[in-house]
Write a structure and sequence with these properties.
alpha/beta; 5-stranded mixed β-sheet; 17% strand; disordered C terminus; Metal_Hydrolase; YtcJ-like
């Protein structure tokens, strides 16, 4: 090996999973100008170290390529992260409510306390949401807005006053304001079936000043780095206008402060004006404009409002209106003519098949070959639709929404119907381009390890077994879904996703070896060392001293981020996070409220949660069998 080139960084004495099929393992890597210069064995790589080379001893630790989320909402999430009390990963409603109580106590008027998605009631041992009365008791004067998935929001009395909802407020289209016998709003908002009322209400809350939003976005990116995320594709979002709401992320990119590579799709905000949006954007924005840290990635996930089948499994499947095809065709023709890739939110096969009719029609006039377009979500996609996507050269971006909503799907459609939602293994078998992500931050958590666990185990965060063995993935395949497979969806194949010469030097050192930890521990992994472009953007434990990304404290000073930090309230390992930061069996034993072991389960509540019990009332069912543990 030539030693004429000196590496900027060398990492050695590791157990490196490269995902390069020609060289699947290595013990050392060299990095130059933000890319992998060499990947191989100790002696060869160390020869590339010079006087100015940073040498990092991996101490025998396992190393993986950086994780790359195919669908998330970091631009929007970053603007709000420091205002949000995150219940992601919190395993007890009692702990969550204690967090809420403490946050209410320090939140000044007129600010709100917001719990905005990323969790489900099924993750709590109590298996329920708080009541509005319980929230009012904690917060009589401070507005509290609690978003649960895309199905409902809970507002306390102070929040109702703040948003101005009264008995005279008309019913919103596609939603419902729950009312008491006198017609007064109770504080429960329901998506029936779309979440417009939930988002519109949330948008009434105070926003952070610009410099606080910059700080907030940096903290959100650091939280992603802590979990091993080095790149994302941002799918736009409701109430996220281009270019105004992208000013913060653009400033961070201009100042070299991006610690997560971000490719963004443009999401229309105007029903019945979508065509005008895309005509304007395709004439003013160049596909791929930007750089390797922040650049344009095409259109979507909202192309036209008439094609949006929101996935509230507590409601019947919505039928798309008859104008869907005509409106969608107008937009897709504009995108195809400009060679812009697109992504389309589609939960149900009924929507996917109708959209494919449009794509096939456009393809007859404007060949779609070479345009990396894809569907998002696709929980109930059919084999026929998969084949049609493959024939057109498209892809499918799946997310772990069923890990949060699986119980509701089973309740409505049955366990058999849920066995392939989505049929990931089948998609891979058919050779379709497919990758994985989260759809964070509202419907699901931004934690990538929850997604990896879901694909490997087939379980929801509440422990329900959704999938039979034939729809599960082995750990390597699941990892590829989060790394090299995503590169097609950002049109960067061969540039990222593997630890391979010439690719971006993005890698992580997981807190434990992903390939050897028990399955139930996968979702509890974090990263002890995260590198993006050869820069250490996060370091912890043995690697804390290497961290090149110090951040100022979260702003404002009352931010929940200062106290609880993020997923599982990890900032308080002896407080709010005490039941959330260890594998499920340890949590259950540690949080068990019974003085003696339960006669049916001992202290092994985790096994009880994971049981595929054909009832919705777990507590009553096990109680009938003589179970004495209140945890089930």
């Amino acid at each position: 090996m030539s030693t004429s080139i000196t590496a900027d960084v060398v990492l050695h004495r590791g157990r490196i999973t490269t995902l390069d099929r020609g060289k699947p393992v290595a013990s050392a890597v060299a990095i130059k100008d933000g890319k992998f210069l060499a990947v191989g064995e100790e002696a060869d790589i160390m020869a590339l170290a010079g006087v100015g080379t940073r040498v990092i001893d991996l101490k025998g630790r396992a190393v993986l390529p950086g994780l790359f989320d195919n669908h998330t909402h970091v631009v929007r999430g970053g603007l709000n992260y420091n205002m949000e009390l995150r219940w992601d990963g919190v395993r007890s409603l009692a702990d969550a409510m204690e967090m809420l109580k403490r946050q209410v106590a320090i939140t000044p008027a007129p600010q709100w306390v917001r719990v905005v998605g990323g969790f489900t009631e099924h993750q709590f041992v109590e298996k329920r949401l708080p009541t509005i009365a319980e929230i009012n008791a904690i917060a009589p004067d401070t507005p509290v807005f609690l978003l649960h998935l895309y199905d409902r929001a809970l507002l306390n009395a102070a929040a109702l006053r703040a948003v101005g909802y009264t008995k005279d407020t008309p019913e919103p289209p596609g939603g419902e304001i729950s009312r008491d016998a006198r017609g007064n709003p109770t504080g429960l908002l329901l998506a029936k079936p779309n979440a417009a009322i939930l988002y519109a209400t949330l948008a009434k809350g105070p926003a952070l000043p610009f410099d606080y939003q910059v700080n907030s976005t940096r903290h959100f990116m650091r939280e992603l780095n802590r979990l091993g995320v080095t790149g994302v594709i941002d799918a736009g979002g409701g109430f996220q206008n281009y270019p105004d709401d992208y000013a913060v992320i653009q400033q961070l990119a201009d100042e070299g402060q991006m610690t997560v590579r971000l490719a963004y799709n443009l999401f229309t905000q105007k029903p019945r004006e979508e065509k005008e949006d895309f005509l304007k954007w395709t004439s003013s924005v160049t596909y791929k404009q930007g750089d390797d840290y922040f650049r344009h990635n095409g259109a979507g996930e909202m192309l036209v409002f008439s094609a949006a089948d929101f996935e509230d499994f507590r409601q019947p499947r919505p039928d798309m209106p008859p104008e869907m095809e005509g409106e969608l065709e107008e937009v897709v023709r504009i995108l195809a003519q400009n060679r812009w890739p697109w992504r389309l939110h589609a939960t149900y096969d009924e929507t996917i098949s109708r959209a494919l009719d449009v794509f096939e029609k456009v393809n007859q006039d404007i060949p779609l070959t070479g345009i990396n377009w894809f569907f998002d979500h696709a929980e109930t996609i059919s084999d026929q639709s998969i084949d049609r996507i493959a024939a057109l050269g498209g892809g499918i971006a799946v997310q772990h929404r069923m890990a949060y909503q699986g119980e509701y799907f089973v309740e409505r459609y049955g366990a058999r119907a849920a066995e392939a939602t989505p049929p990931v293994a089948r998609m891979l078998e058919k050779g379709v381009k497919v990758s994985a992500g989260t759809d964070a931050t509202r419907v699901a958590s931004y934690n990538p390890w929850v997604s990896l666990s879901w694909m490997v185990t087939g379980k929801t965060v509440g422990g329900l077994n959704l999938y039979p063995q034939h729809n599960l993935l082995d750990r390597e395949t699941a990892l590829r879904m989060w790394t090299e497979n995503v590169a097609w969806f950002s049109n960067e194949e061969g540039r990222r996703g593997r630890i391979e010469v010439g690719q971006f030097a993005d890698l992580i050192v997981p807190s434990k070896d992903y390939f050897s930890v028990p399955e139930e521990e996968i979702s509890f992994l974090t990263s002890d060392l995260t590198m993006v472009g050869g820069r250490v953007v996060y370091g912890a434990g043995d690697f804390a001293a290497l961290d090149d990304n110090p951040l100022p404290p979260a702003m404002p000073d009352w931010s929940p981020t200062r106290t609880f930090k993020g997923y599982g309230a990890w900032g308080e390992p002896d407080g709010a996070g005490k039941h959330s930061l260890a594998p499920m069996r340890a949590q259950a034993i540690g949080s068990c409220g019974c003085a003696n072991a339960c006669g049916l389960h001992g202290h092994d509540h985790a096994r009880a949660w994971a049981s595929n019990v054909p009832v919705s009332d777990f507590k009553g069912f096990f109680g009938a069998l003589g179970c004495s543990c209140w945890m089930v």
